Amino acid sequence: MSNATGGGPVTQAARDEAAGRVRAAVAYGALGVLAFSFSLPATRLAVKDLDPTFVGLGRALVAAVLAAALLKLTRQPRPAREDLPRFALVGLGVVIGFPIFTSIALKHLSSAHASVIVGMLPAATAAVAVLRAHERPPRAFWLAAAAGLVAVLAFAATQGAHGIEGADLLVLIAVAFCSVGYAEGGVLSRRYGGWQVICWALVLTAPALVVPVGIAASGGVHASASAWLCFAYVAVFSMFLGFFAWYRGLALGGIAKIGQIQLAQPVLTLVWSALVLGEHITRAMAITALLVLACVLATQRTRQPTTNASGAEPSKPTSTPARGLPSHALASSENTTTS
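Now predict its structure.
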């Protein structure tokens, strides 16, 4: 009798706690997506006055200083030597590749135009993760991913005066780099935790950025206050703080649920491009963005995580996570964050 009456309040409390976690997860995930959604418009404004190389790589140096301070403050253990090549891939994709190629491209493309192409990033990341993990998703997964790529290429081909422009290819290259970085980072996060991975990637990559940033800065860094404000935004929020909210949301709610929130990111970027930059959102942009979103959603719905050849199961951690994030929340390598 006492067990029956005692079970009700406990069950209700557990339900309330679960509901609270879901609300918090959605809030953190939405905050992260909100921070990332302004990255392209801010970069577009910054490169109007500042060198694209300075913007693309200099923001990582600023974020690396913040990351180093946080790692030291929280006394995070150093990465194992055997994991350093993986951190190098994360740094190459997320810290170097995506920022530098998008910065150069946004010197010639509108933020709205670039956001349509970047909308392919979640599907590209899932494809890289599948190949890396030797998974065998159904044919519908590859058809959806291919359809999204075709939609993006068709959009780029019809918007330029001479078909697909070089800047379009730069954004596609940025997406390819970032997808590799995210897929590899998803695996590392199982051992180290999500924010720890991006922090270590920043710190380990920073020495390679000093010379190119110094060369870019030698030509002069005279810019308007708005350009410097946007540079500060992509350095502090896009490359650093945004990851904390995003990874916290994934930790609380899981990638499968919270990852869906990122579908709103290209739409938000289009909105900021129109409201802040005054860019014209064409019908082709809107239609292509919706097609890409549908294809991304299809890849996420059709992918079936399985035990991979390397022995890593998406739902089971293989080692103790670093402090701050439970490993099960980031176990999958289908992490789809846009920086």
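Confidence is low (pLDDT under 50) at residues 306-337.
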